[in-house]
């Protein structure tokens, strides 16, 4: 017999897991199938956009089933997903700034910071919950350094040198990191003990994360796609 | 009901199995989808990079579940994986040196040595554990000959004749074999009885192997990818 879980019609968390999973699969098909229509220099960026949503699609597939089976937040799988997709988003920053001469060191710096942010976040959220505040603080500092680097540091200078469509895309991605990514620390505070308890309690954590992921991963990819479209047009 | 294992949040071995599995899938998508953007002479090399990570993705899928179900090292599956992927890495050496006139005999020699290395290693680790030292020694000699061949033997001469980006890539791959692959004999000594007991005991074997595999397979593939990118650019 085919195994398909019955899901309660008012299970909104389950609903967003299913919608999220399909949206990620659809986005991957979109990026993968459109990449070859662009000039070589944009292909790697669009391919990486597709890889990010593909990784998410696989994890949403587990998380959906995990939720249906256990009625619990699949924190473990979220972090498996993030530890791969967030560094890849750092790679995207590098790839679009390469035209302006970005060095690999910029990429490795962002990747390193993002891994610190996620590993310490995982410790606070899943392993050493009693010390969630201190782990969250370290994670937050790494997040802050990333925000600083792309908004005001070297990445910003490179984007300005590139100008035009690249500068525009870089700015939009910076807003994603500042506003879109800020959803996650809010989720963390809603889900761990600390001075912030009571402010963010009672949020349906997974609904927030699921919507945030869709915006951050698919939206991020679409910005890169759009950059390729605009740049291709202006070259014609 | 869908079957998704619950995994303890501090099960780092499980975590690296999941991250490794997804990283291998993502890398395969990356290599498979980018290969056609390159000139014909690079396509086979990039395709083989993708095949290597694809084989690993499938085995990590088993190993992940094996670990979740039994809490035991999936040694059997690791060797099934290695006996296919390691010879394919030898093929990669041949493929990138073909431009300099590498002969198939070089490839077969490396393949033969790698199979000897793995079969004797499997006997020592999984079948005749009492004689782990002697099997490990034979395996180590084969490993040593591979290292010699690529660092100082015929492969090196060919790389020097090719020069440029090929020489650079060959050198990087040589470092992978000397340093990256050295992880595995350490794992062997940590997991079998012998004079070396006590030196390497207590290591979380699978975490080490999982990180090693990710570096050796994906990193190896990226070196080849990078060679194709560099060579394509300098030809334009
Ligand atoms: C600052 C901070 C965090 C930040 C997490 C972020 C920024 C995650 C981003 C995820 C993305 C972008 C996923 C995919 O789209 C944690 C780890 C919750 C821990 C608490 C402090
Ligand atoms: C020398 C030696 C070994 C070497 C194993 C190696 C070198 C494995 C390489 C695996 C790779 C590269 C996998 C995929 O990425 C064994 C068999 C552990 C047995 C003990 C002696």
Give an overview of the whole structure.
The structure is a homodimer of 236-residue chains. With 236 residues, the first copy, chain A, is mainly α. The termini of chain A are far apart. Chain A is built from nine helices and no strands. Helices cover 79% and strands 0% of the residues of chain A. The radius of gyration of chain A is 18 Å and the shape is globular. Chain A has a single domain (12-235), classed as Rhodopsin 7-helix transmembrane proteins (Rhopdopsin 7-helix transmembrane proteins), CATH 1.20.1070. The longest helix of chain A is centred in the first third of the chain and has 31 residues, at 40-70. In chain A, helix 1 packs parallel to helix 9 (205-235), helix 3 (75-97) runs antiparallel to helix 4 and helix 8 (183-191) runs antiparallel to helix 9. Chains A and B meet through helix 2 and helix 3 of A and helix 1 of B. The structure holds retinal (RET) (2 copies). The site of one retinal has 17 residues of chain B, from helix 3, helix 4, helix 5, helix 8 and helix 9.
Instruction: Give the strand tally of chain A.
Output: 0
Mean pLDDT of chain A: 92
Output the number of helix runs of chain A. Answer: 9
Q: How many structural domains does the protein architecture of chain A include?
A: 1
CATH class of chain A: Mainly Alpha
Q: Report the radius of gyration of chain A as a whole number of Å.
A: 18 Å
Report strand % of chain A: under 5%
């Amino acid at each position: 017999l085919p195994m398909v879980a019955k899901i309660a019609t008012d299970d909104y968390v389950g609903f967003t897991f299913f919608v999220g999973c399909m949206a990620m699969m659809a986005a991957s098909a979109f990026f993968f199938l459109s990449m070859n229509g662009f000039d070589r220099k944009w292909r790697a960026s669009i391919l990486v956009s597709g890889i990010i949503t593909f990784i998410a699609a696989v994890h949403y597939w587990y998380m959906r089933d995990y939720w249906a089976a256990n009625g619990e937040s699949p924190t473990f799988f979220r972090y498996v997903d993030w530890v791969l997709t967030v560094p890849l988003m750092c790679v995207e920053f590098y790839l679009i700034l390469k035209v302006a001469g970005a060095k690999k060191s910029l990429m490795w710096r962002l990747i390193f910071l993002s891994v610190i942010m996620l590993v310490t976040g995982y410790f606070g959220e899943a392993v050493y919950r009693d010390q969630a505040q201190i782990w969250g603080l370290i994670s937050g500092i790494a997040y802050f350094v990333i925000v600083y680097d792309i908004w005001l540091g070297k990445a910003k200078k490179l984007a300005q040198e590139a100008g035009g469509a690249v500068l525009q895309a870089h700015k939009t991605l910076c807003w994603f990191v500042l506003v879109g990514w800020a959803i996650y620390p809010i989720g963390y505070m809603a889900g761990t003990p600390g001075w912030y308890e009571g402010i963010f309690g009672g949020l349906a954590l997974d609904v927030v994360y699921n919507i945030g992921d869709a915006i951050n991963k698919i939206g991020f990819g679409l910005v890169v796609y759009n950059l390729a479209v605009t740049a291709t047009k202006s070259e014609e």
